[in-house]
């Protein structure tokens, strides 16, 4: 059963920002879907099994932004 975890991302301002976050987070093992909005700062990560928050936060950090689980 798929699970969705939501995070709040700070620092995104445009579609390019969304793309950077989407690209990094989609590489996290187990992630099957990523929805991200620069306008709201919301990041929704879908996976078949629960994914480590630290892995998602590290991926967002790699993209140049900051995330916290919301």
UniProtKB/TrEMBL annotation:
Transmembrane segment boundaries: none
Domain (HMA): residue spans on this chain: 3-68
Pfam family for this entry, one: HMA
Gene3D superfamilies membership: 3.30.70.100
Protein name: Heavy-metal-associated domain-containing protein
Lineage: Bacteria, Bacillati, Actinomycetota, Actinomycetes, Micrococcales
């Amino acid at each position: 059963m798929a699970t969705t975890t939501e995070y709040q991302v700070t620092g995104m301002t445009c579609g390019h920002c969304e793309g950077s976050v989407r690209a990094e987070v989609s590489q996290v093992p187990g992630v099957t879907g990523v929805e991200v909005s620069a306008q709201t700062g919301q990041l929704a990560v879908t996976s078949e099994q629960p994914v480590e928050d630290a892995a998602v936060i590290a991926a967002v950090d790699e993209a140049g932004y900051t995330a916290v689980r919301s």
